[in-house]
Design brief:
The chain is α/β, with parallel strands linked by helices and 306 residues long. It has a domain at 3-12 and 45-228 and 288-295: Rossmann fold, CATH 3.40.50. It contains 13 helices and 8 strands. Helix 11 (229-245) runs antiparallel to helix 13 (267-286). The protein is globular and about 65 Å long. The protein starts with a helix and ends in an 11-residue tail after the last strand.
């Protein structure tokens, strides 16, 4: 993967990213997990919901003290730290972008049982071999990162994940998934490239192909959970309400009252965001948000089958 191709999704150059930050984007880089009863917490921004999603994902690991966990796409390190705190495991956070790893080290690198590495998740053994080798970790966590890997990259990630896991290990992969078998259909609902350009990806992996590839690598499917309603569905509804209200001066004034950071957004910014959010809605209707739990058999071979 090319870091330069991914960086614009997170370097504040995107109007979408700036809008999310103005609305309280937290120390994480995921969309968030929204429970209906917790929606009043939106007055505090998106951070509590992003943390909720990370914790829901971490719970699927079922990690224990003394185990070794690889947190792929660790971003600014919050999730890596939370895995360590919640489970007592030793955790390695891996991210493609050096600036993410540097920030994660400054924030959490002094905590015992945590380390960070800059590396490519589609070439784990090559790029992180000093810290991650064959059959060297018990759990792998990948939250909302693999959609940027590309089709071949996702296949390579699954193969490497199987290889670096110890027999009896587990991969928790949470990602956007395409509902049909033809991911090229995204062109129909994102014809202006608003969604793919903002997040720097080509397509979403069909869920059926994710499952088939994991099986071909040697994984046993433990659990598949659909979080589309709690994550993309409610995130989209919140976005729709915000950008539509911001098309009017009164709506912008109310937003500035509750979220002062939105003062940086001009009426033209909000008009552009309205088009971008509408494109996201079209893509959301054709895609899902899925938590996949794959286990490596206790007698599994070290090398993947593909």
């Amino acid at each position: 993967m090319d870091p330069a191709a991914i960086r614009p999704a997170f370097d504040h150059s995107s109007i979408l990213f700036r809008g999310l930050e103005a609305l309280g984007w937290g120390p994480l880089l995921n969309l968030g997990y929204f429970r209906l009863l917790e929606l009043p917490l939106l007055v505090r921004g998106l951070g509590p919901f992003q943390q909720r999603l990370a914790r829901e994902s971490i719970a699927l690991l079922e990690a224990r003290p003394g185990k070794r966990v690889l947190d792929v796409g660790c971003g600014h390190g919050w999730t890596t730290s939370e895995i360590s705190s919640a489970t007592g495991a030793r955790v390695i956070g891996l991210d493609l972008l050096e600036e993410h790893v540097d920030l994660a080290r400054r924030r959490f690198g002094d905590r015992p049982g945590i380390e960070f590495a800059c590396g490519d998740a589609t070439r784990i053994l090559e790029s992180a071999g000093r810290q991650v080798g064959e059959a060297s970790v018990d759990r792998i966590h990948c939250l909302e990162a693999a959609f940027q890997f590309g089709p071949q990259g996702r296949r390579a990630f699954l193969a490497d994940a199987y290889t670096v896991l110890r027999p009896g290990g587990r991969l928790v992969l949470v990602d956007f998934t395409w509902r049909s078998d033809d991911p090229a259909e995204i062109e129909e609902c994102d014809d202006d490239g608003h969604v793919r350009g903002a997040w720097r990806f080509a397509d979403f992996e069909p869920l059926a192909r994710y499952r088939a590839t994991a099986k071909a690598c040697g994984f046993v499917e433990h659990r598949i959970v659909d979080w589309s309603v709690q994550v993309t569905g409610r995130f989209q509804k919140i976005g729709n309400v915000v950008v539509r209200s911001a098309q009017y001066s009164l709506g912008r004034a109310l937003l500035r009252l509750f979220r002062p950071g939105t003062a940086i957004m001009s009426p033209e910014d909000w008009r552009l965001l309205n088009a971008i959010v509408a494109a996201h809605d079209r893509v959301r209707r054709r895609s899902g948000y899925t938590a996949m739990v794959f286990d490596k058999p206790a007698d599994g071979a070290t090398s993947a089958r593909i």
